[in-house]
Amino acid sequence: NPSIYPPARTPRGNYYYGPKYAILREIFKNLPKKKVNKDCKNFYIAFGGSDPSGFTIKAIEALDKLEDITSTILLGAGFNHAIELERLLKKTKNGKFTVKEIHDISYINQADIGLVSGGYTIYELAATGTPSLALSHNEMEAERLKLFSDYGITLDIGNGAISVDNLFLNVKELMENYELRKKMSEKQQELVDGKGLDRMVEIIIDKLK
Questions:
Q1: Dihedral of the CA atoms 114, 129, 41, 80 (nearest 10)?
Q2: Number of other residues whose CB lies within 10 A of the CB of residue 120
Q3: Rg (CA), the chain
């Protein structure tokens, strides 16, 4: 289990936990070390299949306060803020935000910072070494994000109650802290190398023997 704290008592049998057991697609294996740019110009926004908290809208409103940036927005199949999103994008500068519906690792690779919720996307960002700010949709994600933050692979900045202004301040703070972003990127790729499935298979085969 990649997403829980070490148990207070070891359960019966063998127990394996932590980011190194995250199951990712083959494309996230053996990635090169990320070059962390001092200037942040590119962002990646992904808040799950339906984004029930409307974080995508808040992220756009926050990032629109910045000049000379581009953002890729990944929408899930159940995204339910389409009308609000369409109205908002009409008010932003042309080319500042690009909406995608098909997941591609290149969107993450080109990003300087990711804005995401508490799902597996955090592991994908970690594998590429892309620093991130994370928001929780619910209590389960809040617990998970505290763990991810403790590991140092993301920054937990709150839940649906966060205001656009506070989100903007969190973004600016991470943008301006090059050393933190560099340290986070190194920690991410140290803990998540995309080989979680390989480790699980090796453990199972070893135990069968």
A1: -20
A2: 14
A3: 18
Q: Please choose, from the candidates 38, 108, 39, 48, the residue with its C-alpha nearest in 3D space to the C-alpha of residue 72.
A: 108
Burial class (CB in 10 A: 0-12, 13-18, 19+), 187: middle
> In angstroms, how far is CA 201 from the centroid of its own chain?
26
Question: What are the pLDDT digits (tens) for 102-132?
Answer: 989 999 999 999 999 998 999 999 999 999 9
Distance CA 196, CA 23 (A): 5
Q: How many C-beta atoms lie closer than 10 Å to residue 200's C-beta?
A: 13
Query: Is the pLDDT assigned to residue 5 strictly greater than 80?
Result: no
Structure tokens at 14: 């063998």
Beta bridge partners of 156: 134
Q: Which amino acid is at 120?
A: Y
SS3 content of the chain, % helix, strand, coil (to 5): 45, 15, 45
DSSP element (H, E) containing 156: strand 155-159
Strand (E) or helix (H) holding 134: strand 132-136
- What CA–CA distance (Å, rounded) separates 63 from 109? 19
Write the pLDDT tens digit of every residue in 11-56: 666 788 889 999 999 999 999 999 999 999 999 999 999 999 999 9
